[in-house]
Predict the 3D structure of the following.
Amino acid sequence: MHARTCDYLKDDGNRCRALALRGREHCKFHLTGAQRQKRMETQRAIAQAPPIELPPLEDINDIHLALTGVMNEILQGRIAEKPGGQLLYALQLARTNLLRATDQPEEEFAAVQSTLTHVMQELLQGRITSRGAGRLLFGVQMAMSNIRDGADLSFGEEDEAADCRPLMR
């Protein structure tokens, strides 16, 4: 029985002739190199794609527009699975906050929506780790629960900035 050889064509015009992996056209070396090349091309395409623009999340149409944009980016492979899931979770929190807007003061509603938009933009631009975004979104969820329960959430801007610094890259 004849063993299949690698079909990779070298720069000098000769074939590789190493044993091909079972069910494949290339040897392990050239298969790994082809996969690496494909990943690099994908990363270049992602880097060259225009960044997704998020609306201010002020009404249900803005949230739907952002949701559609995030889902398209995930489907096209420009947003990885974990950050994509966190973006979808942030949009879910924005929608929940919007539905509760009649029960809370306008400034608290606007602060939550603004924070969610900011976290999403930082995550999309790679200025915050996925773990940091998850922690911030959990904090926003807790703040929304506290607002619903009538707690006073006023604290200084310096405290807020200090709490977020370790989460940034």
User: Anything to note?
Assistant: The chain has six helices and no strands. Confidence is low (pLDDT under 50) at residues 157-162, 165-169.
